[in-house]
Specification:
This protein is α+β, with helices and mostly antiparallel strands. The protein has a single domain, classed as Lambda Exonuclease, Chain A (Alpha-Beta Complex). It contains 6 helices and 9 strands; from the N terminus they run E-E-E-E-H-H-H-H-E-E-E-H-E-E-H. It has a 6-stranded mixed beta sheet, with helices on both faces. The protein has a 3-stranded antiparallel beta sheet with strand order 2-3-4. Helix 3 packs across helix 4 and helix 5 packs across helix 6. The longest helix has 28 residues.
Length: about 230
């Protein structure tokens, strides 16, 4: 079982869902989510790649794939949150989708979370005053370094260059945590498991972390120029 150490006071934020997801911060300001900023500032190349994929598989099939993936990810996150808080994932029952996501969660536990020294919070809502907010899966210590950690499910294993936005996302949460809680987080970890239960782990730190942090700040600037 992971050591759970709630050393910071993570106040819940009011999330406002709509065409563009917003969070209301403690000072009453409404700021965009990290994912909203990333979606609005995607490169034309990324947008075209997604459009090409939808055209290739067909809109109905694309919708089915994305809906199934979202449901699988939600279930997997639930099992992992249970584990962090209680030391037990809970039982999946007989639903095949629950069984699959439960197995994926177990893989992340045995392959990835085993390297977590302690967790300060799970499903932590963070904000950078006046700029943005969002929810990260885990904040704590990974292999003796303070880190932002996220769980990701995938239909198929990913190459590192395909998931740059995941790295940018972790640096966004790290900056917000540093700003509000006075930390100096310089590490991001992605625990990823595919639908056929293949585990991958991606870590950014040092100069690479700084690189993605700079990319995030440019995306924030770009977003505010667009609105």
């Amino acid at each position: 079982m992971i050591k759970f150490n709630p050393k910071y006071n993570y106040n819940p934020l009011n999330r406002i869902d709509g065409a563009s997801r917003l969070y209301e911060t403690p000072d009453g300001a409404r700021v965009p989510s990290v994912t909203t900023i990333l979606d609005r500032t995607k490169s034309e190349e990324s947008k075209q790649a997604l459009a090409n994929w939808r055209k290739r598989v067909g809109e109905q099939k694309a919708k089915e794939i994305t809906t199934e993936a979202a449901g699988r990810g939600t279930r997997m996150h639930k099992w992992l949150e249970n584990y962090v808080l209680t030391g037990d994932t809970g039982e999946p029952g007989t639903n095949p989708y629950s069984v699959q996501s439960h197995k994926m969660a177990q893989t992340i536990i045995t392959e990835g979370l085993v390297n977590c020294d302690e967790v300060w919070g799970t499903e932590v809502q963070l904000y950078c005053p006046g700029l943005y907010a969002g929810t990260t899966d885990l904040v704590g210590v990974h292999s003796r370094q303070d880190a932002i950690m996220d769980h990701k499910q995938t239909n198929k294993p990913k190459k590192k260059e395909w998931i740059e936005d995941y790295f940018v996302q972790t640096t966004a949460y790290a900056l917000a945590h540093d700003e509000v809680h006075g930390t100096k987080i310089r590490k991001g970890v992605i625990f990823m498991c595919s639908a056929d239960n293949e585990y991958q782990e991606f870590i950014i730190e040092g100069n690479e972390f700084k690189h993605y942090q700079d990319l995030w700040l440019r995306r924030v600037e770009q977003y505010y120029k667009l609105i």
